[in-house]
Specification:
The chain is an all-beta fold. It contains no helices and 11 strands. Strands 2, 4, 5, 6, 9, 10 and 11 form a 7-stranded mixed beta sheet that branches. Strands 1-3-8-7 form a 4-stranded antiparallel beta sheet, with no helix packed on it.
Amino acid sequence: QVQLVESGGGLVQPGGSLRLSCAASGLVFSRYATSWYRQAPGKERELVASITLTRVGGATNYADSVKGRATISRDNDKNTVYLQMNSLKPEDTAVYYCSVRRNIEVYWGQGTQVTVSS
């Protein structure tokens, strides 16, 4: 059984930083592309960042809205994927989810709330 568990969200002031974590059980992150999405109230879920599987180099990709402020990374020993977010803005407020596609199945975590407010 695959389980993804996000953590690291919270309340942060504008300009602050957070590191979100996504720990997996039941699958090995390094074998699959992994993504972070977010969903703000009243808005559709959007892709924030993704990282390809290790075998093809672990290339990263970012939404324009976070490019230069976000870094996605993977610790294969801990089977955990991270999203480092810097220079946070109020518009970054959302529930952040990690997601993995394994063959035809897509797995999601329960999400972690990030609130950027003074």
